[in-house]
Design brief:
CATH superfamily: Nucleotidyltransferases  domain 2
Number of helices: 4
Order of helices and strands: HHHH
Number of strands: 0
Largest sheet: none
CATH topology: Four Helix Bundle (Hemerythrin (Met), subunit A)
Structural class: mainly alpha
Radius of gyration: 32 Å
Length: 170
């Protein structure tokens, strides 16, 4: 029995109650901290996924721009620049396929492979030094360049769609 008139007994009771409450609050805070840690890890995963997808979109935008430039260089018969753009397109497509192998569905990865192959076929059809292509030959080069651009644009569109879905998911 507690003697409420004895100050030592009152302080002992108050100290015991405070200790029990302190242990209870500590246990409660441990559970809250675990939940906060899990939420922080989930948020970090989401940010990393978004950053990774955004990087893929940026890479595809860059190679899409190079494919556009390839068309302009063909139109202006700047064959050295055409050759340089072809090499860049092939290189960037290869890097994208290596770096983001799981970032795109199989059919869009195939589009990038086709784009690189078509770019290579343009290089094989380039006129030799000192000659000019006929209108038909130049038309074929432009047609192939448009197909390169189409395949890259298709992959870019898919990457943007994936990025938007990732960004809007809770």
């Amino acid at each position: 029995m507690i003697n409420w008139h004895d100050p030592m007994s009152v302080w002992t009771v108050l100290g015991t109650v405070a200790s029990v409450l302190g242990v209870g609050v500590s246990i409660w805070l441990i559970f809250i901290a675990k939940g906060a840690r899990k939420a922080a890890e989930d948020a970090e995963d989401t940010v990393q996924t978004y950053t990774r997808k955004r990087g893929l979109v940026e890479e595809l935008e860059a190679v899409n721009h190079k494919a556009d430039q390839l068309g302009a260089f063909i139109q202006h018969e700047q064959w050295f620049a055409v050759q340089m753009r072809i090499q860049e397109i092939q290189s960037v497509c290869s890097q994208i396929l290596s770096r983001w192998a799981d970032g795109l569905p199989e059919d869009r990865r195939s589009d990038l492979l086709r784009a690189a192959e078509l770019a290579r076929s343009i290089a094989k059809r380039l006129p030799t030094s000192g000659t000019r292509p006929t209108d038909t030959e130049r038309g074929k080069l432009i047609e192939v360049q448009l197909r390169v651009n189409g395949h890259i644009s298709s992959a870019l569109g898919e990457a943007r769609k994936i990025e938007e879905r990732t960004r809007t998911q809770p």
